[in-house]
UniProtKB/TrEMBL annotation:
Belongs to the membrane fusion protein (MFP) (TC 8.A.1) family. Residues 215-335 form the CusB-like barrel-sandwich hybrid domain. The keyword Transmembrane helix applies. This is Efflux RND transporter periplasmic adaptor subunit. The chain crosses the membrane at residues 26-46.
């Protein structure tokens, strides 16, 4: 049992301390009472003056202000309306699901304001007194672009809110809307559709060959003997009429004597016989200069000079001094190189674009930096079964003779029409294999995918036969991103349509 110390046992100094402690408690109590009275007076003054309640004021002062919610000034916040439509205490900072409270202000029916705040649930807070009608949320799509939708607000695995899709945005056909910031980040660029000449060069290996029409041979139509060959060798350039050799032919000599006799001693039938003798010399291919010399000198030459039949290069020489030359043997082969053929082996898959008369440019390995132009002269009617190529012949002028037979090079055949057509850059066309699509720029961040039919390609452009017209704006850069957005939008719309068709 505790012992009670008698009063007289206390020390006087201790009694003094106790006295001071009691006085301190009384002072503190008086200070608290003064604070409460001051707060009540301040609240009464605010209530009578109609001032809005400060944010720091405790809510229990509201009944002491001498006014109810309806007497508060218009526009002041009375309580927080939850985004789910239920009124909540202002001290609660957010509604269920992490959504911010909507402020409910004085003036009007509180329940109506709560209903109005509830109508905005799921797609952000809006001004309660706004005159614009709230848009209806159709669904929420994945913020990362995945094919996932939700009828109610939700978050993905990374904590990102699903993006609401409002009524009217999904009813804009195939139009894709992209924000200006995203356009700048992705580097979207557009270009106007123009009418251009579309040519596609078909490249193929080629070789230089002689023009068969410009090759001549020197051969005798009767047996003869070569007395002397002029200093003309293989590879030498000769001109038409230049002497090649001197020869003796018994048959040519006999025909020359007969012609001379008829010319010197004409008879009543002389003109007819003389004409027959002249024709015999022509059949023996005697040069006209030899016949003229017989008429002029009235003598039959023992040997005759055989001239070059045309300008060109001596490709072959078999004539030798003193040799016997049987009829028909080739003594000289001469080719004119002023015009040559270029034979190109065009792949089978490019053959359909090649036409007669198309311009051709040739570059040879032996003459770098030089190019030669010509036109397609013939497409051979046969495909090489080993190489799956078709030979195309091109005529190319060669006035300086630098293109030599069997020289190799490459040709570029300019296929396509020389008439301008509607064309877009190659980068504007998205080819999926089954169809071709371009993205039209409608302005203000709006884009529309458009299926087109393409034609010829070349020079970095593609002919558009159907789908767009000259003057339209097409996207030439980052169009794959917009096409992906369009495909995602179409997929989401189909998913929403399928969900609406399901029976409830």
């Amino acid at each position: 049992m505790d012992q009670v110390t008698p009063f007289h046992a206390f020390d006087p100094a201790d009694r003094g301390l106790r006295g001071r402690s009691t006085v301190g408690r009384l002072v503190r109590l008086a200070f608290v009472l003064a604070t409460v009275v001051g707060a009540l007076g301040t609240g009464y003054t605010i209530g009578k003056a109609g001032w809005p309640l400060p944010s720091w004021a405790p809510t229990w002062l509201i009944p002491m202000l001498g006014r109810d919610e309806g007497s508060a000034p218009a526009g002041s916040v009375v309580f927080g309306g939850g985004s789910d439509g239920h009124p909540v205490h202002p001290a609660e900072h957010s509604a269920a699901g992490g959504l911010d409270h909507l402020p409910v202000r004085t003036g009007g029916d509180a329940s109506a304001r709560i209903d109005q705040s509830a109508s905005h649930a799921g797609h952000g807070a809006a001004a309660v007194g706004s005159a614009e009608p709230a848009k209806k949320v159709l669904y929420y799509r994945n913020p990362m672009g995945l094919p996932d939708t939700s009828p109610v607000p939700k978050k993905d695995s990374m904590g990102m809110d699903y993006v609401p899709v409002y009524e009217g945005e999904a009813d804009d056909g195939s139009i894709v809307k992209v924000s200006p910031g995203k356009l700048q980040r992705t580097g979207v660029r557009s270009q106007a559709v123009e009418r251009r000449v579309v040519t596609r060069p078909v490249r193929a290996p080629a070789s230089v060959q002689l023009d068969e029409r410009r090759v001549a041979v020197v051969a005798l139509r009767s047996e003869g003997f070569i007395e002397k060959v002029e200093p003309v060798t293989t590879g030498a350039r000769v001109r038409k009429g230049q002497p090649l050799m001197r020869l003796y032919s018994p048959e040519i000599a006999a025909a020359s004597a007969q012609y001379l006799s008829l010319v010197v001693q004409p008879s009543s039938s002389g003109p007819l016989l003389a004409d027959g003798a002249r024709r015999r010399l022509e059949n023996l291919n005697v040069p006209p200069d030899v016949t003229a010399e017989i008429e002029r000198t009235r003598k039959v030459p023992l040997t005759i000079t055989w001239p070059a039949p045309r300008d060109g290069v001596v490709l072959e020489r078999t004539a030798i001094d003193g040799m016997r030359a049987p009829s028909g043997d080739v003594l000289f082969r001469i080719a004119d190189l002023s015009l040559v053929w270029v034979l190109a082996d065009v792949p089978e898959h490019d053959l359909g674009a090649v036409r007669l008369g198309q311009p051709v440019t040739m570059r040879t390995h032996a003459l770098p930096g030089r190019s030669f132009t010509g036109r397609v002269d013939l497409i051979y009617p046969q495909v090489n079964k080993e190489t799956r190529t078709t030979r195309v012949r091109v005529e190319i002028p060669n006035p300086d003779g630098v293109l030599l037979p069997d020289m190799y090079g490459d040709v570029d055949i300019a296929t396509g029409s020389d008439q301008p057509v509607v064309a877009v850059p190659d980068s504007a066309v998205i080819d999926t294999g089954m169809r071709q699509v371009v993205i039209l720029d409608k302005g203000e961040g709006r884009f529309e995918p458009r299926e087109v039919k393409v034609g010829a390609r070349g020079n970095g452009v593609v002919e558009i036969r159907q789908g767009v017209a000259a003057g339209d704006q097409v996207v030439t850069a980052a169009n794959f991103l917009i096409d992906a957005e369009s495909n995602l939008k179409a997929a989401l719309q189909s998913m929403v349509a399928a969900s609406e068709e399901k029976p409830q």
